[in-house]
Amino acid sequence: MSAYYVYSLSSELLQSLIPRNLSAGDNQQAPEPPSSEVSPSSTSATISCNICLGATFSDINEQRTHFRSDWHRYNVKSRLNGGQSVSESDFNQLIDALEESLSGSESSSEEGTDSGSDRDAVSTLVNKNKLRTRSISPEASVRRAPRNALSWFHSPPSTQIGVYRALFPFDTPEDGHLQALKNMQKPVSGGRSWAMFMVAGGHFAGAIVRVSKTGEDDEVYHKKPKKPVPDTEVLRHKTFHRYTTRRKQGGSQSLNDNAKGNAKSAGAQLRRYGEQALRDDIRKLLTDWEEEIHDCELIFIRASGANRKIFMDYDGASIFKGDERLRTFPFPTRRPTQSELSRCLQELSRVKVSHFTEEVLRAQDEAYLASLPKPKPLPVEPAPAVLEKPKAKPVKLSKEEEAFREKWQRLVEMVSKGRLEPLKAFWEREGHNFGGIDARIPEWIGEKRVATLLQLATQSGQDDAVNWILEMHADPTVPVPHLELEGNGAEEGEEPDLKRRLSTAYDLAQTRSIRDVFRRNAGAHPDWWDWFGAAHVPSALSREMEDERDEKKKARRKGLKDRVKDREAKEKEKEKDKPAVDESMPIAPAPSNGPRKLGGGAGDMAGIAGLTPEMRVKIERERRARAAEARLRK
């Protein structure tokens, strides 16, 4: 049974057609809901995509291929972010607008979608849409059906036909498609022709086809209302292939070079040569077909990213980027071959036909409108974000400043490690550059818990360095910064004296030797500072006081030794006063079947029952000692 062709529709059918609109009164045409009740002569797809505009499929394999395409991925991400879906032609235009150099199809399989060349492009487009502010219009709260690649017309009582929107001029409004379809039936001198090109994965296929007869050959309007004979003819065609794809790895060589740098393998060189040769072959073919391309009514190009630049905008190009004849195939395509071009030609030139009554169509429209997502509320303008203070850029130091910082670091290191002799020599040579012995340690040193060299030496436990710094007339009354800021470690309700007491270098001393250094200097130089007030030193320490303390310590140690000797002497006297053991008395023999141990018989085991092994060992040791003493006395 013959099919309806776009350029050979009968006049009776054209006169009965009306635009297919939603019954709810929306002026935008809705896609025909998929149904299995299609005329045998119809080539319309029975499966469609609810996200993408104009995606219809003849089987489930084509639908799966579409789901893996970048066009579908972009529309899904755009809808999730609150945006709108775009048609495949608009998507390709967005890809062309990017400045990045994108690769074409990277798969040599039968699938028509690219396997990964435009992944970055999809993410870039989605991120750009996030930054765009959506204009708020009164129509935002109205449910809108997404546009479909097909424009549908209804012929009462129960016939519907669909024509791809790509066949109409770009400037044709929705309500002008019917008149454009009627104009397409008028004969044209020389016939109507299309140019069709595909390139992906190193494969290329191109053809110049005539889709309608000339006015002299046949009349478009037939007197009898019957279906016309198909009228397509391939005028020119060419296919070739170049090695450009990295086998079993995916991605073209140019994409790999852009990501990882130029590879130096022999295969990489071959692939680079293949890409250049493919580009030269295509452009040479376009030059040979320049006259036929000039006469074409439409130009269909299937290419992604950088591959689209092969066809246009070069010196001597036959096709230019702003050409109104440019189209993309409004359905998924497979590997570029001559048979695939023929299939696409049939898909584009044939009219999609279905047969539903007006009641069924009205019910489908209502169900379809009910399935559309509810419009989102108008976005509320977000509050202005608080701008974060920019981080201070590191100040570039001069050579003098770098040298001064290095000197400070050396000084702090010698004080904290107690290297007294190098410290004296360094201070004698460079001390005048630091502003005195009480100079504050700079913040960039990182010592936040101390403020002066005296506090640093005290905290580090270096008594020699502390004594030298105090002899250099360092101020011991300078408060400790961290104790001063943290309330001196005191909780609420504590007495002020405790807070005041924990705030000087003396309070940082952790050993008696360090505290004695402060007390000695307080006794040697009582008029230098307020030692017993602001410096928190409890008392002075002189040489006589240290000698007296040493004498008391010696006397105390001597008294302890005397007491130990007296105790030992008394224990010996008690041992002498004990009655001697009569060795003539017989000793009960130990049972032969029991254990025999030194210091006791088998009967003694009952006395140590239940004791730990350690206690048993101790008791056994005491028994052996007593036995030895008895032998010595004998």
From TrEMBL:
GO terms for molecular function: endonuclease activity; hydrolase activity. It comes from the Eukaryota. Residues 250-259 have a biased composition (Polar residues). It is found in: Cytoplasm. InterPro entries: ANKZ1/VMS1, VLRF1/Vms1. Residues 190-351 form the VLRF1 domain. GO terms for cellular component: cytoplasm. Keywords: ANK repeat, Coiled coil, Cytoplasm, Endonuclease, Hydrolase, Nuclease, Repeat. PROSITE patterns: VLRF1. Pfam families: bVLRF1. Residues 543-553, 561-581, 615-634 have a biased composition (Basic and acidic residues). The VLRF1 domain mediates binding to the 60S ribosomal subunit. This is VLRF1 domain-containing protein.
